[in-house]
Every structure is written in C-alpha cells, then in structure tokens.
C-alpha cells in the first residue's frame, strides 16, 4: 500500500504524467428538463451603480469553475469600479469590493470582466482620459491589484475587452487608424511587457477571444465587412487577415470550441441583424437567421455555450439559440438595459446581468442551455511502461465530471482483455475531490468500483492494486475502466510484461527484457 500512496503523490505533483495512456470521453447533448427562471432581479450592487457600458462592447458577468458568480459595475458617479460575488447560484450577493478608484477629476468610461476557472477575477477598463488599466484578484474577488500603463484607447466607444486562459491574460482595445492593440501578460496579470502588439485590422468595433481548445488568440473586427486574424503564440504574432463572408454593423463576437467544432459567432444590430457562424477550420461563413432582431445600435450581447448553443440577447429580451443557429429557444424579457450574458460552467445556468435604474441586477435561468450536456472522462494509469510477472500493479483510476449538471447512477467497473491480471483479488480505495463527490464506498475488492453520482467539476479517484499472475502466458497486461449509465466514459492502461530490467539485483524493477 505504501507504493500506492507514493504513486498518488507522484500524480499530484505532475499535471501531465510521463507515461502514455488512453482516455476516451463520450459527450451527449441533453435537454428534457423544463426550463425555468431560477432567480430574477437579484440586486448585485450594494451602492447606486452604473453599467460598464453598452451590451455590444462590454461584459459585466462571469463565473468560476466552482460556480461562483462575479458581477462588475461602476458607482453611479463613475469614480469606482466594484465587483460583487455570489456563492449561492445568484440568489444573493456579498458586499461589493472596490477594485479601483479613479484619479481626482476623472471617471471610468467602459470596462469588461473575465473570470478564470480557479476564481481569478480580471477587470479591464478605461478612464475619461482614455488610459487603459487592469485590476486583478487572485483570492476570489476579496482584494484587487491595479496595473496601469497598458496604453491609450483613443476609441473608448469601441470598448475594452479582457480574456484569460491559464496564466495568460489578454487586454484589447482599438487604436484609431491602426487597428486593435493586444496587451499580454504571461504571469496572471502581474506584468505586461510593453509596447502592446498592434493587430492591423480594418474595423471600428472588435472582438478579442481565446480558443479554449488550443490557446489561439482571435481578433475579429468589422467595418460592414468582416476581418479576422489569429495568433498561435499567445498574441506575439498574428496570421494574415481572413475575410469570411458577411456584413455586420455594431458587432458583438463570441467563440465556441468543443467536440462539435471551433466556431466564431458575430452578430450586429441596427442595419443588419444576421448572426454569422464562422468555421475556424476553413473560414466558411454561414448566415444564421434564428437569432433575435433589433433596430437598436450596440444592443446585442452573445455568449457561445458550446455544441451549437449560443446565448443571445438584445435590448429587453434574451434567448438561447440551439442547433447551430437554426432553432430559437424561449424568449425571456429583461427589465433593464445594457445587458450582458454568460453561462455558469458549473451549473449550466444562463446568467444575464443588466442595469435597472441605479441598480445592477442579475437574472439566472436553469435548463435553458443544453451545450454539450453532461460530460465524463476516465483515465487509467500505473505510471509504468513495463510490469513483472508476479508483481502487484498499483493504478490510479480517475473519473471526472465536466459540462453541465450531475452524472448520476454511473456504474464503474474494471475489466481486462487478457488473463494476466487477477481482478478477482483486486483491492481498491476511493477518494472524492471534495465533499460533493461522495464515494459509494471508501474501499473494496474485486472488479466493481460501485455506482456513483458525480457533480460537474468534481472527480473520484480509485487507488487500485491488482496482482499479475506469475504463470500467465500473456505478453502484456491491460486494465480497462468503464463508466456506464446515461453518460459513458472509458480509459485503459497497457504495460509490456518482463522478467527483469538491469539484472536480478534490482529490487522491484520493471524493464526491457520480455518473457522467454
């Protein structure tokens, strides 16, 4: 058992193990549950407030992987940036925290918020002198650090945008006559090398996006026609411009990147209401007509939820558009202006924040967004490439829940296609990632690991010890783990069977010489 815990310790220290293993995750788009307003009109602001700006150019709401919601707003006089936090799915908000206060004689004009999975909160903003700043929090919005000197946004009406992935933070804004400036931090916002990268692109309004599947940074812009440039090196350089077909005014941009593909979504308002779906793999652009229509400039805010779902909103209304822009879901009213949207990564709830008089409010709807549904993934590994006859192999079997919702009634079991592993005499222990991932049993024997319920964002890990039969005629061992239920996943690990590595004097070695 000591070797088993040593293996667990090694696993914890390495995000990616040295060994190869097979991971298969199956994802299902699921609906079925009735949609409902979970909370409407929750007041996020605890002082008289003003919005970050127009729906088209800002985002005022985000959420971490654990479901914590963050809403940003200005004080009513525009001299303070504040962020409020909800840990109960949007039912209530804690007192807001001042992220920054404007210099004497100045106010703030526009801002946007981004939240990373770990709860890092980032607010990019512009003051009345067009100076660009970032306020970031590494303690879930309790305190903020301000970074100045990020440049001058001489077209603050185009907004300022912020994105984050891993340790990278990106801030973008328009520089008139030049293009879009992109300032990049590789250390979580602590430092930003200067000067910024200027992305030469034609357009008055823009989108700054990050592809979660590969880390590509995407800048889109429009001047009636569409232009897109992509960086594959964290914003250092950008590919030549692409001009997918379409015509948009007062554009709002979002991205979805998942098992269904990698897509940009860009829609406008006023003179054109069509939303375009742009395939990043080949730049094909398809006009989608199921989106909401508005004649009001700068009124659209979208959020790509994945697997063909996009949360769309305009002045006074919002809906989820399904099936890659071809089916409009239920349209709901918004009792305010300057709405922005997001999807809670933990619950799948649609989040809509908006300004109602001098109050910043949040609506939360459940079962509206299907996205990629409940997702499971399974990994199996013993940390080795070889195994010895007669050895007991120690495996880590991990089942992870992602996507939206809880995977319930999932039966987890072990199998092997060969005869060398003695599963009847396997022994295991189960550990949940937190108090919501409750193991069906703390320990057991045999091939069945129990039936589990796994909330999104959690995982269960089994420490499994399996003897290798000394008299087996197999040349390899393979341990397969399967999760079966409404959602399925599987994983496997294979080792070559050997007698010794560096001689008989190496205790517990596993090596390169096979059975003769």
Structural notes for this entry:
The protein is an all-beta fold and 516 residues long. The chain folds into two domains: 2-28 and 374-514, Immunoglobulin-like, CATH 2.60.40.10; 36-366, Neuraminidase, CATH 2.120.10.10. It contains one helix and 41 strands. The strands form nine sheets. Strands 1, 32, 34, 37, 39, 40 and 41 form a seven-stranded mixed beta sheet that branches. Strand 13 (168-175) and strand 14 (179-185) form a beta hairpin. The protein starts with a helix and ends with a strand. 51% of the residues are buried.
The outline comes out as elongated
- Report the uncertain regions: 1-33, 501-506, 510-516
Radius of gyration computed on alpha carbons: 26 Å
Total strand segments: 41
State the CATH topology of the largest domain.
Neuraminidase
The helix-and-strand class reads mainly beta
> Which percent band covers the strand fraction?
over 45%
Tell me the domain tally.
Answer: 2
Percent in helix: under 10%
Mean pLDDT equals: 88
Main β-sheet: number of strands, strand sense, barrel status? 7 strands, mixed
Helix count from the secondary structure assignment: 1
Question: What is the compact description of this entry?
Answer:
The chain has 516 residues and is mainly beta. Helices cover 2% and strands 49% of the residues. It has two domains: 168 residues, Immunoglobulin-like (Sandwich), CATH 2.60.40.10; 331 residues, Neuraminidase, CATH 2.120.10.
């Amino acid at each position: 058992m000591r070797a088993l815990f040593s293996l667990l310790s090694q696993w914890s220290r390495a995000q990616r193990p040295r060994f190869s293993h097979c991971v298969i995750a199956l994802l299902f788009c699921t609906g079925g549950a009735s949609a409902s307003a979970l909370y409407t009109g929750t007041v996020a602001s605890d002082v008289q407030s003003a919005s970050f700006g127009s729906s088209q150019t800002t985002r005022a709401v985000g959420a971490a992987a654990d479901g914590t919601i963050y809403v940003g707003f200005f004080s009513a006089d525009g001299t303070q940036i504040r962020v409020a936090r909800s840990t109960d799915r949007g039912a209530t908000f804690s007192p807001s925290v001042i992220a920054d206060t404007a210099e004497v004689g100045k106010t703030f004009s526009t801002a946007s918020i981004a939240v990373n999975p770990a709860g890092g909160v980032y607010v990019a903003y512009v003051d009345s002198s067009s100076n660009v700043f970032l306020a970031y929090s590494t303690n879930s919005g309790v305190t903020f650090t301000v970074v100045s000197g990020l440049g001058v946004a001489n077209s603050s009406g185009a907004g300022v945008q912020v994105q984050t992935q891993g340790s990278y933070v990106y801030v973008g804004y328009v520089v008139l006559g030049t293009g879009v400036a992109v300032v990049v931090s590789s250390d979580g916002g602590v430092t930003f090398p200067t000067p910024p990268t200027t992305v030469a692109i034609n357009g008055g309004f823009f989108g700054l996006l990050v592809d979660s599947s590969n880390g590509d940074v995407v800048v889109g812009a429009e001047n009636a026609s569409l232009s897109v440039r992509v960086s594959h090196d964290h914003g250092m350089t950008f590919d030549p411009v692409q001009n997918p077909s379409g015509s948009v005014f007062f554009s709002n941009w979002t991205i979805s990147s998942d098992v269904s593909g990698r897509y940009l979504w860009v829609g406008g308002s006023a003179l054109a209401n069509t939303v375009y779906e742009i395939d990043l793999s080949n730049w094909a652009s398809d006009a989608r007509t199921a989106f909401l229509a508005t004649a009001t400039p700068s009124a659209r805010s979208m959020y790509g939820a994945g697997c063909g779902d996009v949360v769309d909103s305009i002045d006074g209304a919002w809906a989820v558009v399904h099936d890659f822009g071809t089916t409009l879901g239920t349209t709901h009213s918004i009792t305010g202006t300057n709405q922005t949207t997001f999807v809670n990564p933990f619950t799948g709830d649609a989040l809509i924040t908006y300004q109602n008089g001098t109050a910043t409010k949040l609506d939360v709807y459940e079962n509206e967004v299907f996205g990629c549904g409940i997702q499971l993934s399974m990994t199996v590994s013993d940390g080795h490439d070889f195994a010895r006859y007669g050895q007991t192999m120690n495996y880590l079997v991990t089942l992870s829940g992602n996507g939206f919702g809880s995977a319930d009634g999932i039966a987890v079991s072990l199998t092997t296609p060969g005869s060398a592993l003695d599963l009847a005499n396997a022994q295991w222990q189960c550990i949940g990632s937190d108090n919501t991932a409750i193991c069906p049993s703390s320990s057991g024997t045999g091939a069945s690991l129990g039936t589990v319920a796994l909330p999104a964002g959690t995982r269960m890990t089994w420490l499994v010890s399996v003897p290798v039969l000394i008299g087996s005629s197999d040349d390899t061992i393979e341990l397969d783990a399967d999760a079966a239920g409404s959602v399925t996943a599987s994983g496997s690990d294979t080792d070559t069977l050997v007698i010794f590595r560096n001689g008989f004097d190496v205790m517990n070695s596993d090596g390169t010489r096979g059975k003769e």
